Amino acid sequence: MYAVLDIETTGGLYNEEGITEIAIYRYDGHKVTDQFISLINPEKEIQPFVVNLTGINNAMLRSAPKFYEVAKRIIEITDGCIIVAHNALFDYRVLQTEFRRLGFDFQRKSICTVELAKKLIPEQPSYSLGKLVRSLGIAVSDRHRATGDAQATLKLFKLLLAKDTGKIIVQETLKSETTGTLPPKLLDIVEKLPTSVGVFYIHGDDGKILYIGRGKNIKKKVNQHFTGVNQKSKRIQKEVKVVTYEETGSELVALLKENEEIKLNQPIYNQTSKQKPYNFALYQEEDENGYLRLFVGKADSRKNMLTTFSNVHEGKNTLFKLTEEFVLCTKINGISEAKKNCYNFSISKCHGACIEKEEPLIYNQRVVEAIKKYSYPYNNMVIVDKGREIDERSAIVIEAGQFVGLGFYNLNYQINNTSVLSSVITKMNNKADANHIIQSYLRKHSTLKIIKISETVSND
Question: What is the spatial distance between Cα 327 and Cα 350, in angstroms, rounded to a whole number?
Fold first, then answer.
């Protein structure tokens, strides 16, 4: 549990500042569960430059509650939470100072979104809150007011949680929350899980990830592990301390995140087989008459694989389907062993490439169109799918025919500006496996929105 907060002060000498406004959002990693926003009478004058910066003046605060009047509420809303703030050292210090004046020792763990951003979004021109969220396309209002800055910090923290593929933030959080406690009943764990699509993480002692999985219904999928009778399920049931999750909105995003994070974290109960998820691939070559021939063969990363398949049957079915759809020649594509013309020519489903009646240039144009549909339609593109919330979308980025990474966005500005999109997406490394996952998914879900992009997104 997190308490995302921002504090405005009077300014002045170190440790002599007074709080003029505070905003706190209690956040469970998925949604805001409580909030507290208030002006505060600091019982001292506000520095003139602060008045100009925040718009908060002395007259506005005369009838506001004093800190001791809201102290109990602050303790309650931050209880059991990790403080999250942009430049947390400042906000946490000021808060502790105010409590110390009341004779209370206020102690909470803290996370600084400045330091997190430097690790997870390196090489940004500035890490000040305003410039950073602007560069990421995050909408923000009421800058230099506690509410606006706390909301911007919350949106930034949500993005950083999504970018943290190593789950360092969550694991460190769990270390502080589960020490010395027995694991809760499995039923209690399941009851707290959502029925939405996403990735889940089963943790053991000290937050260590034991297993990573995904499902269209997270609760149902975890429940299957908790009711399973095989050896792996029994071990998980015995060692589990807590289950965390990340809603993705998109099944494709869940597939990609699961693939990447299993390889990155190598949980002990995930089978990290070196075998690829695909064994066969679609290739092209030019025959002796200049016609492009498509064929299915064993996957070989040293060759130019147009798309990949889990098994030979899937590959041959796809080859047959695209041959029919694009009126290609079954003889050229090796489906027919006819000596002269293929059977499709006799029923007007082939234009005669098999007997050199159709020009190679015309025939090959249709082959290129078929390849585009069954691999990637554009070399540089973004696949747009559902997001985690109604006003959000997910973005899966393909560059130079290879998967680059994924992320979430709320505004069209974020996806249409490649420099912003580069910062929003989480770069991922397992490109070959990811390409197979994406292309297999696109073959079954042809209605996904695809946007062609002209500029490169990655900085690699």
Answer: 6
Percent of the chain with pLDDT over 90: 48
| Average pLDDT of the residues of the chain | 88
pLDDT at 341: 87
Separation CA 233–CA 213 (nearest Å): 13
- CB of 428 within 8 A of CB of 405? yes
Both tokens of 260, joined, read 């990447």
**3-class secondary structure, 394:** strand
* DSSP helix/strand/coil, 177: helix
Domain ranges of the chain: 2-163, 168-265, 280-374, 381-452
**Residue 327, helix vs strand vs coil:** coil
Are the C-beta atoms of residues 2 and 157 closer than 8 Å to each other? Answer: yes
Whether the per-residue pLDDT at 46 is higher than 70: the answer is: yes
Question: How far is residue 71's CA from residue 412's CA, in Å, rounded to a whole number?
Answer: 41
Q: Model pTM?
A: 0.76
Domain 168-265 fold:
GIY-YIG endonuclease (3.40.1440)
* Fold exhibited by the domain 2-163: Nucleotidyltransferase; domain 5 (3.30.420)
Residue 273 has pLDDT above 90, yes or no: no
